[in-house]
Amino acid sequence: MVRKLIELALRNRFIVLLFAGGLFVWGIFSIRQNPIDAIPDLSENQVIVFTEWMGRSPQVIEDQVTYPLVSNLQGIPKIKNIRGTSMFGMSFVYVIFEDNVDIYWARTRVLERLNFAQRLLPQGVTPSLGPDGTGVGHIFWYTLDAKNMDLGEQRALQDWYVKFALQTVPGVAEVASFGGLEKQYQLVIDPVKLQFYNISLMQVMVKVKANNNDVGGRKFEMSDMAYIIRGLGYIKNKEDLESIAITNYNGIPVRVKDIATVQMGGDLRLGIFDENGEGEVVGGIVVMRYGENADKVINAVKLKMGDVQKGLPQGVSFKVAYDRSSLIEASIDNIKGKLIEEIAVVCFIVIIFLFHWRSALSIIIQIPITIAISFILLNAFGVSSNIMSLTGIALAIGVIVDNGIIMSENSYRNLSEWQNNPVKK
Distance (Å, rounded) from C-alpha 129 to C-alpha 79? Predict the structure, then answer.
């Protein structure tokens, strides 16, 4: 079989060279398309289900949220394991799929099962899927440099402007905000006044919620003109909230300001984000989507940040806290340099060892073709160019040359025996 294959290759040299050239060109194209990262993604193929039910203890979350979700998600096909975690006000369920399962197929099946499991959860509790990223998806961190802006304003700027703009970048799964204060209207209610006016806390909550809303009407036609009737009721400042009527007391309306103090404040915080011991900052974490090119996504995010910078208030700018592209470029450049050095040394040793340029050329030409073909396989199996994969290619160069030298020496030995044996001639 091997002999016939060699004979076929020798009789059709042009076709063999053309085929090798085609593989080399395909490999060069694959090198340009292959994702680049510093480290390989060894995280599990998982889908995260996040459920929030604020104010409940971990035991209540475990019994009424985590357990029903874990029990119903177990019927999904191709699942390897399910892990559940319950904490104060939050539940996390990690659905681990087999490695060969497409991540978006897995997310679709989990979402289908969540629609069924929704009826088993308490009223008002809605589970949601986490971002379609991986454990190494945190590729870029940034903070806002705003010396003359308070933390509440910075967090509002991050949540309602910067975050939405960066989430439009191709390859970005999520931009997670951190730090600062989430601004909110706070009602500090006096319980003595509630008792005096005979008002319950639930009455206050219902009235405030009902009065912070727009209502719709219908069209009203008059003199060949149509008018749309609607009621504008959204709160715009503290005074609007203070003027909401809760009940009547002896014919006099009791308003929010009569039983409580309204103030602007921040939501409950479980920690702070400090930068280099210089004080609190506000920023975001860019999470890369599954299977994307980390270096390409980071460059696209930086380009988008330049456009976003034009719309920021005066005196506000971005500061990079973590940028994986510098690690990626340094790692890849180091491996590339070592790879070129190894190829040069191997070529020199092959020439010295064989001391025959045609034989050496037939072996050396295998190195770039084999490396190019390896990138075709990397793309086929979804493996990125990282320290591990490029190091493996570098180590394989010696094996390629060894096989070539053995085959070349074996060919010359057989030719020598055939030329020096008159009987075989």
Answer: 16
